[in-house]
Amino acid sequence: xxxxxxxxxxxxxxxxxxxxxxxxxxxxxxxxxxxxxxxxxxxxxxxxxxxxxxxxxxxxxxxxxxxxxxxxxxxxxxxxxxxxxxxxxxxxxxxxxxxxxxxxxxxxxxxxxxxxxxxxxxxxxxxxxxxxxxxxxxxxxxxxxxxxxxxxxxxxxxxxxxxxxxxxxxxxxxxxxxxxxxxxxxxxxxxxxxxxxxxxxxxxxxxxxxxxxxxxxxxxxxxxxxxxxxxxxxxxxxxxxxxxxxxxxxxxxxxxxxxxxxxxxxxxxxxxxxxxxxxxxxxxxxxxxxxxxxxxxxxxxxxxxxxxxxxxxxxxxxxxxxxxxxxxxxxxxxxxxxxxxxxxxxxxxxxxxxxxxxxxxxxxxxxxxxxxxxxxxxxxxxxxxxxxxxxxxxxxxxxxxxxxxxxxxxxxxxxxxxxxxxxxxxxxxxxxxxxxxxxxxxxxxxxxxxxxxxxxxxxxxxxxxxxxxxxxxxxxxxxxxxxxxxxxxxxxxxxxxxxxxxxxxxxxxxxxxxxxxxxxxxxxxxxxxxxxxxxxxxxxxxxxxxxxxxxxxxxxxxxxxxxxxxxxxxxxxxxxxxxxxxxxxxxxxxxxxxxxxxxxxxxxxxxxxxxxxxxxxxxxxxxxxxxxxxxxxxxxxxxxxxxxxxxxxxxxxxxxxxxxxxxxxxxxxxxxxxxxxxxxxxxxxxxxxxxxxxxxxxxxxxxxxxxxxxxxxxxxxxxxxxxxxxxxxxxxxxxxxxxxxxxxxxxxxxxxxxxxxxxxxxxxxxxxxxxxxxxxxxxxxxxxxxxxxxxxxxxxxxxxxxxxxxxxxxx
Length: 811
Ligand code: GPQ
Prior knowledge:
By secondary structure, the protein is α/β, with parallel strands linked by helices. Helix content is 47%, strand content 15%.
């Protein structure tokens, strides 16, 4: 149901000027973009606050079921334009700024990205918040209010340098509201023993525990033109007044503040691991405590809490939730074990985001029981009862043993999440299949009914209406405006993909986006790139399995092709990278260094000229993605088949008209199904071929290196001094590829990748054919709306119904 705020430009200007005058003691014309941004944000706050209050009142008055999405990461990026778009007043505000003679773009750029996430997982969580509000479901986020978000990346001498990202700095987060009255205490450490509580009951007694205060800050999540405002609750840590004497020095306090200081503390040390576990428990415990409290306010029986509450465990970071929920129900509210367990398993559900084993969290029982002694007791009890119950059912012993929570001195968090919940899902079809047949196969054999797939999605509004306004206008021109409210209407574009005038329009749109990016590239790197070249983009975290290195090997091959035959016919390309490497991930950082040195070599070779350029854009983040993605001709999605759970940038590129260069991995497969085989470029091994290598151990990278002369030359380029200033990084790469047998099969996929890239070059030269492909991608991208993904979560996992619209109804 569409519903926009009624706001005239004149009214907006009055509101804005009034807020500005109250806040900033200066003239509008003298204000900095930041001052203007703050005034604008506060104006918007006034607009949505009544809706927010009303939403909360109506949800509790109607006792609506609420799903709580627990995630250690949320990556919304900038909120200004999303909030304006969703209120339906983006154009009004832009017009108001024009009338005031102010530069809206400068003001929007003054907002610091809210980067409380690393990459896909955090961005997905933020997308789900938007889609929950947009679909109208009551779904609230629960996470941490990090003082420093994901590090800021600088490139110095080709190396990644990490700087702290003080995202709310001295200005604060303009969107949040502190909710003091919902603060709760969270306990760590100490000793716990069970004492007689009378009536044959036991109660835990704590000694020497550390008690910390969890204070929530709420960030509103606005639905698209529907008047709905949901809530993202981020927890911060404080020292409770009654315990202040325990922290006499600033250093003592700092250690506490560390809990919400950084997004992923370095966990290569025992201290770092402890801090990470404390973060996970802190947000989980605080969230669950307040959820139970607000449920009880309705006066309903606690045993039935699952009728009004769902808790979603986003990856394993909040997977302590089932045990903590049991603790709250039993210790704090006196419930019996069986009733508590029944409620817990009905409340909890879990999403897995990777099959890579290093990301499936495990904690040593020593550390876990030291930090969370009571929760550990409960986990041991859950584990014992699970064994007993499975044994009684006659389940296969080996399977049960493999699925235990506590095993070989470790606590397996994914196992706790699966045993303690009713649903486990993967994030793309192939990923869910792999969970069933490999990673979690014993669980699947024991409890197949828990497994389901929910293919990821994106907030398409952000990637078109906000990131690509001209593309959006062009879509309007050809099929009307309906797609802005119902994304499935985009399919009407299928009718014009072969219309020469439409093709021409969409070509021009892409050229404009490329020009915008080319200007940015020149400004930030000094490299001039031609918009006549194919813009070939790979932006994502730097990880060996994502195979940025395969892309690099292809670039080296092209470099030699041109050097060998400078007069040859060549389709010009600009290769654009953006990628942060985890601070402790040495190999990934070496790849960044090599990309930068290769870029120096190529970009400064007059013989190469405009035929080939390589650009590494530093500090890749959501707001930079908004600039880069709409400008891409080719979207590089080249992970080793089976390794990328889904990918989500692949969906954003598709939607803005890039052609995907893809392995049959993650959601690439579903993209192919939507656009058709001929409108995507597929290469490389399938997951079955990869698994065949694993089973037979027959892979021999050195043999490929020795026998394929092209590969041989490309790989030698890493170590023969051709690329200056990266001797040691080059030999690390050589060793990974040849000496250590190429874990991600780059050598095997190389020839097929090169052939696929040659196909892309040929296709691009046939503009009609290329525009057909490009527009087919836009026209068939509706499947990947996170609005539909979240509807499936809401209906199939959380069993929510759509709350009735409040007073704010469409006229
Ligand atoms: N993903 Cl386990 C992350 O971004 N961080 C993580 O710690 C884990 C997964 C990604 C995954 O690699 C992508 O394939 C997915 O598209 C994304 O999660 C969202 O599901």
